[in-house]
Amino acid sequence: MIRNVKLSNQAKEQLIRLKTRTGIDQWNILCRWALTVSLREPTPPTPIEYPADSNVEMTWQTFGGEHHEIYLAIVKERCDADGLDCTDDKVVTAQFRLHLHRGIGYLATPGSIRGVDDLVRLVKSSST
Asked: How far apart are CA 57 and CA 46, in angstroms?
């Protein structure tokens, strides 16, 4: 099971810019958006080693809030769909980190998200 979420310095800097653009102050909410953006991609994330070198850290329950079990189930389902062992906590945790960091990178792409409206449009465009 995923216990803690600790971000890289690069992801922290990207989230700081997103916080400014969107007005969303909580790290966990922006991280949830990032995770879901990455999970909707058809390809698995590139296996890159992201250092946990920032001071941004939260528990899994803080990350997922009242829906933390659903987020975990979705990550496990994606691991299974990608042919990975969804019963191995290390695999699930590693894939979660890869998806989270990839999603943060997507959201932080210059011009991608200028405000909350862009996040909503992103969801609407993926559901049609």
From this structure: 23
